[in-house]
Amino acid sequence: MTWFVTGAGGMLGTDLTARLDDVVAPGRGELDITDAAAVGEALRRHRPLVVVNCAAWTAVDDAETHEDEALAVNGTAVEAITAGCAEIGARLVHVSTDYVFDGTATAPYPEEAPTAPINAYGRTKLAGERAVLGYGRGYVVRTAWLYGAHGGNFVRTMARLAAERDTVDVVDDQAGQPTWSGDLADRIIALAGSGAPAGIYHGTNSGRTTWYGLAREVFALLGLDPARVRPTTSDRFVRPAARPASSVLGHARWAEAGLPPMRDWKEALQAAFTAITAPSGSPGGSPA
Predict the structure, then answer these.
(1) CA-to-CA distance for 201 and 250, rounded, in angstroms?
(2) Within 13 Å and on the Cβ side, how many CA atoms surround 172?
(3) Keyword DNA damage, does the record have it (predicted)?
(4) Which CATH homologous superfamily contains domain 3-151+177-207+244-262?
(5) C-alpha 109: how far from its chain's center?
(6) What is the pLDDT of residues 84-112, one digit of tens each?
(7) What's the pTM value of the predicted model, to 2 decimals?
(8) Where are the domains of the chain?
């Protein structure tokens, strides 16, 4: 089965393509996904059975002042990918985000919960979701707090700061689900081959924590004292884009696909930790 992966050079795309035998994975220089004609031509030429869109504008704060540019990647380009899939009859998996929610829920958001993004990034990602959901063979897989071995992320940042500082202040008033990109790649492959109904699926590791809780777990896995991580609040780290206070996602729809929810975030972090904290790659930004 031939796969076509956009955004293959990113954290998730790299893990995904490494797990596939028959895959077309054009780099950014080979395919501009905002060029609708080029997208259509590439899909007609390769005629994949499954297309996975991992490409996205992910600079959350920059999207506040460049919403049109972010929308071109996260919304308009997704419309072109969806149209190309419809033309050749390919199954589409589109990666989205917990930021389509406002973060005010006191329980995990079910897949069918009303969306209400509170920043430009969330609005642009929601536009992409709507394009995919209008296609009868499209999956929207929402993920959150993604970390992996390829590129910058919060886990790598905390490992670096552990070596540089005696203490680290990390926000304890934003709750979510740290998610290993390797686990998400495995789940995307399983979903695409499952014959599950089209629609929305939440691709996050199970459980919940805060950025503070995640940082403490990183220190513990490094063999360091977690007490070196100190809790603080979001108002200490003001950013251009508002963040959801709680974006924990529910996983009920996996039962329809005959697949269990993804494993607990602590178990996943422990399994991935050696590769994630390797010296290669650049540290990413964090709410710390």
Answers:
(1) 9
(2) 9
(3) no
(4) NAD(P)-binding Rossmann-like Domain (3.40.50.720)
(5) 16
(6) 999 999 999 999 999 999 999 999 999 99
(7) 0.95
(8) 3-151+177-207+244-262
